[in-house]
Amino acid sequence: MFFSEEERLRLLKLYRKLLRLVWEYTTPAQVKDVRAVLTDAAKTGKLQRTVKEINPIVRNLNTALIVASEMGLRHASVISAMLYDVVVSKQYSVEEAEKTFGTSVGGILRGLTKANELYDRNAAIETENFRNLLLSFAQDGRVILIMIADRLNTMRVLKYYPEEKRLKIAGEASYLFAPLAHRMGLYNIKTELEDLSMKYLQPAVYFEIARKLDETKLSRENYIRNFIEPIKKRLEETSDLKFEIKGRTKSISSIWNKLKKQKIPFENIYDLFAIRVIIDSDLEKEKSDCWQVYSIITDMHVPNTSRLKDWLSIPKSNGYESLHITVMGQEGKWVEVQIRTRRMDEIAERGLAAHWKYKGIKSETGLDEMLTRIREILESQESSSAKLMDDFKMNLYEHEIYVFTPKGELYKLPKGATVLDFAYGIHTSLGSKCVGAKVDGKNVPIRYELKSGDQVEIQTGANQTPKQDWVNFVVTSKARNKIRQTLKEAALKEAEFGKESLRRRMKNRKIEYEEAILMKVIKKLKFKTVTDFYAEIGAERLEVNHVIDLYQEMDRAEKAVNEPTEVRSAETFFVDTTTVAAGKSKEDVLLIDHHLKGIDYKLAKCCSPIYGDEVFGFVSAVGGIKIHRKDCPNAPQMMERFGYRIVKAKWAGKADGSSYPITLQVVGNDDIGIVTNITSMISKEPGVSLRSISIDSTDGLFKGHLTVMVGDTRQLTGLIKKIKTVKGVKQVDRSL
User: Fold this and answer.
1) Spatial contact of 686 and 699, defined as CB atoms under 8 Å apart
2) Is pLDDT at 576 greater than 60 in this prediction?
3) DSSP three-state, residue 686
């Protein structure tokens, strides 16, 4: 009863496929032992389905197949993936697995079990537990790989999961597992995870791009075929190389990223596809064979030299090797051509796991070097979930540069790295004391941006210490974390000194200290934290006598019991403009979650949603629901950390007279007449009113922020179009 007939047939098919993949490195006795464990788990009935349509044993076999066929992992990893759910459900212990299958299997299952326990505590992507989770992964890189395979398997069957779980699972795949797959060099898996995540997180965009790709499929295939044939013929005529040429279309997620980055319509993307030339080459002839193919292709087609990417001479840090060129094809279209050997292609497809095959390593070890950068990020005391993923994306997706020490040692850094990044990359103490550098013999400041091939000699000063603005121009996570850590330690020391100075001065003036009154002083001075307040005193940026005078003034006000009314300065009087018009009508214009009405909600100020925007609800910690736009800058972090508090929301029938505040950022020529024309036009728009305006001008341009009241997105779109027609206006954007 544990398997349906369909599941039984699928199980047999998967089992036979796995046997064909593992027979070289797994003994018949081990196969028999794994089968016995799974059979016993099925017979006892203790193994529960978390999703009705998904059988846990079939699920684990699918994960094991990804581990074996798509990642190229072997014995211990495949067995661990097959036993995962049986061990997690306590049908079979890690100790028994270790005794039967060896210490490698036991170690991997221990890591997977620990990860599962943290997930059970609802700590999937939350600050401290999330950090501990990844640290536990980093003890054995195979645990990371199996978790990536497991999430890919889940994403492939996500349609069977309850609707409320899909958003959280898809969000984690995008923010955690896709970057990790990229770091491991698993490009195909990374791309599939991003595409599947987009399918559930942004279905409208995903299916629109998919539809357009389908419409252009035939013409694309014809173009690729017509491009490949002449090249194939020329290679056969002029070389004795054995090769394969194939074309591929870019993934939907990469097309979407290009559309957003370049702000162009789908029809204007010229490189929707790439051609790959894969050469069967001996190891010692790989580079010369690749450059020979490059020479033949560039003789036939004009290359774009600015887009040449040579990862043959210096491979990427995750092992990726290839030669990328962009050439002019038929009809004036640019075509990307990737040239690599069979070995390089397998590493690109299967990632770092493929290195073991070519280096002759059978024990699946050697992942420590690969995880060094991840550990650097995790070991920072400042690592929160959101900062951590920013650091991952920064370190994983940016192009790399290569610079040298005076002794000729090579260092890899992200593109945009500065002298200060390089100094911290060598050693923390060198970074903290850095005052500049000599780059190729020329003196440069610490914020100088390095380029590939630079030779850098760091210069230090005995009195130099990290400054707050350093954080703004470093790009590596190591440098940023070390600067923050040093600044925090310095601020704590200053705060201790400031606290002691204030107490001593109050004691000298015989003033009795009261915590409650001092808290009011700190609030009056607009400090966010007590530590910041004391640090300002310690650094002598805040005069102690001024603080004491304010303290005494507050103290007298507290004791003035004969004063019947509160004395307020005229400075504190202000007109609250937020009362103007932002309210919702008595009718509900939003349906929350499962078409519920009458639920208390507020529109989030961080993204100011209006009628017609795509929105979602977020259950706040103090109760009630805040409505955010789906493209709100805070949305990724909310979905990442608090996916369980996300609820669906959509606009219903619009209530009459409802209007919403939005802020427009307008850039134009610095001319008061233009601003007058804009405000005059807004005043004439029916149903639109100007609420506030602020103007800054510099270098012949003005930047204005206009807060206007509009009824819906249709009205907003029309208003933006009209403002763009005003002569002298260069740009109009809706502020987030």
Assistant:
1) no
2) no
3) coil
